[in-house]
Design a protein that fits this description.
The protein is an all-alpha fold. Helix content is about 80%, strand content about 0%. It has one domain: Rhodopsin 7-helix transmembrane proteins (Rhopdopsin 7-helix transmembrane proteins, Up-down Bundle). It has ten helices and no strands. The radius of gyration is 21 Å and the shape is globular. The N and C termini lie far apart (about 50 Å). Bound molecules: 2-acetamido-2-deoxy-beta-D-glucopyranose (NAG). 2-acetamido-2-deoxy-beta-D-glucopyranose (NAG) binds next to α1, α2 and α5. Belongs to the G-protein coupled receptor 1 family. GO terms for molecular function: G protein-coupled receptor activity; olfactory receptor activity.
Length: about 300
Amino acid sequence: IGLSDSLELRIFLFAFFFVFYVGIVFGNLLIVVTVTSDSRLHSPMYFLLANLSFIDLSLSSVTAPKMIADFFSKHKVISVKGCFAQIFLLHFFGGSEMVTLIAMAFDRYVAICKPLRYTTIMCGNVCVGIVAAAWGIGFLHSVSQLAFAVNLPFCGPNKVDSFYCDLPRVIKLACADTYRLDIMVVANSGILTVCSFVLLIISYTIILMTIQRRPSDRSSKALSTLTAHITVVLLFFGPCIFIYAWPFPIKSLDKFLAVFYSVVTPLLNPIIYTLRNTEMKIAMRRLRQWNLKLWVKS
Ligand SMILES: *[C@@H]1O[C@H](CO)[C@@H](O)[C@H](O)[C@H]1NC(C)=O
């Protein structure tokens, strides 16, 4: 059904989402290219950041392009396969994003609370392992949920009241008693979201308490990095918890909240990390000069 019926609102939303999505593509690609091309940024924190950017870009690409293309089409249609593909990819990237956010919090925890052991704890293998675990957990989470939903009988109702397919809404269309499936979604997605969120809040609380006991000049830089991380975490998890784990969903609010993790947080990461992080800014300047040199030579 999409987000709105009114033409004025649709034009506004189209412009809004179009600009956001272009920003997401450019911003996140810029982070990935900057981190991979600059050897001075080859540290766990920046590797995780580049991975987060890649996931953000993918997560947003699952829903945003179709939503943008659908604003002015009369019949907003998606095939059953397309619908399940959206569900699968959404949970795959969403699960990976949660694990990556936890990994980034862990990385900051080690860097701030155990600085002397940072290089031994966060060595190359551990970092690769964390990234592999993120993709693996995302995959398992997505498959384990979808396995229950693919065999549902669909016999009539086929309108999804949102701008993308997601389990809670698609399950409602099945001609079967879906009570158990609803519980399963809350148990799987809901618990994953709430546990990740609690884990993140605990780690950031420990980090903040450690920082408070420090002399102020070094801690202010750490504090600004942390506030950025915490903002992303709150904006990503708030809507997710509301959609999957809140027992009394207010359905019309759900789809507007979903806008947060499909276009708002994926844009926020590049903004937060590129505008506020000096090392990133310096690396981007180097990248630009290097490109300019290549261009002048050719
Ligand atoms: C993700 O992290 C791994 C492991 O540290 C790294 O090798 C890889 O380059 C990162 N991916 C991106 C897109 O930066």
